[in-house]
Each structure stands twice: as structure tokens, then as C-alpha cells.
Amino acid sequence: MQREKVIVIGAGVGGLTSAALLSARGLDVTVIEAANAPGGKMRQVDSGGALVDGGPTVFTMREVFEEIFDRCGASLDDHVKLTPSTTLARHAWGDDRLDLFADRAKSEAAIAEFAGADAADGYRRFCAEAKQIFTSLQKPFLRSQRAGPVRLAWEMGKANPADLLTTRPFQTLWGALGDYFADPRLRQLFGRYSTYCGSSPFQCPGTLMLIAHVEARGVWLVDGGMHALARGLEAIGKANGARYRYGEPVREILVEQGHAAGVVLASGERLTAPTIICNADPAAIAEGRFGAAVSSAVAGMTPSERSFGAMVWTAHTTTSGFPLAHHNVFFSNDYEAEFVDLAAGRMPSVPTVYICAQDRDDRGVGPDGRERLQILVNAPANGDGPGFTEAEINQCQSRMLQITERAGLTLELPPSATVLSTPATFESLFPSTGGALYGRASHGWAASFRRQGARTAIPGIYCAGGSTHPGAGVPMAALSGGLAVDILLKDLASTSKSMRRAMPGGTSTPAATTAASV
Asked: What's the predicted TM-score (pTM) here?
């Protein structure tokens, strides 16, 4: 019997997950990726001869990946070396510093010393609510196909009616944090979790406090950087027969008689398959990047609905002064001003700066001499517009260095060992995004329901990735890949059942597939 053929466009986390799970089920899977390596945004950047993680740097929700590897007949530990981190992150406001820890009691003690006993009590109450929100949404939302607000409310009400009153969809995250923290520095710290999905704490719903719980459940350091996870997902796909073709952009998704039929590569090569999973941003489909025939498969998105982009420096360099941990955040004295600037399409005059010291272990111990750093500042997603002038970029770097120097960190960014990726860079890598790194911004209570789901309006075409439901971030992108597989297999089973019923005498026949191989 000929195996069902599936083409996966894109080898980001969502695409890699879909390919691994489908190949483990015996389907004939080919992954087509424009870049020369797997990972998508989880890429490596050559910075003066050193490969530095240029995308996501925080590994959470380990159980999601354990489940994926297990479903593929493999073990996560056999492919990716993970070390639990006891320090979640180091935070600085000039000379003021606060570490958060995997041990919640230790975090409480640190907060009490930093801001007083009332702040520690607020933290305890905040953690309890963040956990409640995560628990109430994990099954009916994060691990389920996208539903509308009425359906979600119904599912939550069936499980626990009280959950309907505790997710804070109509209050902003910043407002919700005021119920727990009088100290503006702590509101900054926990408000920053909204930027994990490229959104403002002054506009996103309080529901997003669940991200703090996700991180508090555990953060792991990945040996070899986050790109090692992409290689691990690729390996389990290959072990089950999936094929991977790199450096080959897809020019067009083919549709015949209203159903997916295959793809045409930039080279002109035509590959046929009745099922396509697109791991590109859905905006690329809507804008016709894969041909006019499929532009109606998904809803479009306006630039004003985009999440943030970023200025990302990857460097192999030396530091001195401030004792870097693996994850570090440097705050300004005016958090609201940063998001006012971003909403107006400007680079922040007082940015928050994130630094991942990739070579530092859980104790903050790194190599003698040069080390690999990723430095990130939020930016407007204007990469498909005029972008930023050289003067604006230089000013952004100067302001970034002022924030870190205020905390005592001296950074050297030699041009020979530093690469800057701007929103224009990310637009070139991920077309139709403007450089937005997280898909649609989570602004307003309804934003999550406007994300693209796994199934599209054209039969045989599915979406997966961090810009689709359930949301942005590495584990969410992996969950989206799994959701795409689940609905795809359901549709194939339904098609097969319908065809058997249509055959005279009820004779069983496999679902129709195309003859040409991919």
C-alpha cells in the first residue's frame, strides 16, 4: 500500500515536530526548508567564528518534548543534554539586583530582602493565581484545537466552573500585577513576561501571568545551545524515514479541484502531495507568498496587529564588572515609556535589555576570555517598511550599552565578532512578518482567538508554528505541530472512511494519493 505523502514547508520547531510525529505514524514525509539548517527562528549565527544562538534561549515545559520523543519511539535525554537551572534569571535596575530561583521559597526570601515582607507575600499570592490560570487553560486551550471564546468557556466550565472567573481576560497584565506588587520594579519584572509573546504588559490580558508559572515550573540549560533541540527533532524524524531538503525555498503551494496538490520550489521543481503543513507565518500565505491560489486559506493580519520585533546582537566577546548569570535582564527606570515608543513605531529611548550568556553554567561560571552572548532589545516590527537608519541603529546600541553600564556591566562589541539582526533581517528570513518574532500580538482579550488554527480554509493545507495557535514560544510551537498532526490524521481517517462507504459493496480502499514521489 502506498503511504500517504505529506510535505512540510519549514523546519522550525512546529514543522520539525509535525514531521517527526507523522513519520513515526508511517506517513511519507518530506520537509522543505529555505535555510541551510533546521530550527527556523531557533537558528545559529556565525559571530566571528563562534556559533551563537540567535533566537529563543529559554527552554521550558520539558514534558512537551519528552512526549514528542516518546511518541516517536525515542528518548529526549538520548538526543538533547539538559541541565536543570537553579537560577531562573538575574535582574538589575542600576545597582539593584534580584535573582529568581527554581526553588520558590528561595525566590520568596530574595524578594523579601529586595522589597520587603509584603512583596514576598504578594509573590506567593501571584504564584498561586498564575498556577491556577495555567492549570485551567492547559487542557482546554493550550493542548486543544483553537476554539472560540464560547466553546472555551464551555470546556472550562465543565472541568471547573470557578475557572471562568480566574483567568483575568478583561484586565491588563500591568493592572493585575498591581494587586500583588506595590514596588514598581517587581511589576516591571513580572510584566516583562508579556514580551515572551512580543506584547505589552499595558495592553495584553492578565491571563498572560501564566507565563511566569511556566518558567517557575522549570528552566533547563541546553548543551550546545537551543539549536541542539532542532537537531534532536530532526534526528528522530530521520530515524522514522522523514526526508529533509535544505536551501530550497517553496515558491508556490499547488491547489487542484479545491484541494492541496503539492508545491513548486524556487528552482522550478514540482513535488506532489495531497497534504501540506505550512510552518511559515500564516501572514505569508495570506499575502500570496505561496501563490494567489492559497491566499484565501488563512486570514490576513495588519501591521498594527503584529507582535514586537527585536534588535539582536550576537557576539563572541569579553565582559567585565556585572556578574552575568546565564539569563540576565537590565531594566530602565521608566517601563511604560518603552511601550509607548514601541506602539508609536519608535525604538525605545529607555530600553529593557536581555542578555543570554550562552557559555555560562547554572552558577554563572563561564570561560576565561571571550564568551558567546545574545543581546536583545525590543523593536517595532517595521522590517518591511523604511526600517531604521544607520544613525538610529547606532543610537539604539548606545542606549543599550548605557542601560547595561548603569548596572556595572562593560561590554565589548568588536565589529569582527558581532552580528546585528534587525527587523529587516528577520523580515528577509521570515517574509511577511515585518520582523515580528511572535506572530500576532496578544493585545486585548480576543487576540488569542484570532490566531490561525491548524486547519485552514483549503482542504489538505494545515498550519503549525509559533504564529499559530496556541501561541508563541518554543513549547507552544511544538504543541502547534502536534495539533496540526492530530487534525490532519483525523481528516485523513474521515476521508478514508468516506471513500470506503462510496465503494460498491463497501470494499475498503486507501485514501487517494498522487503518483509522483516527493
From this structure: 0.91
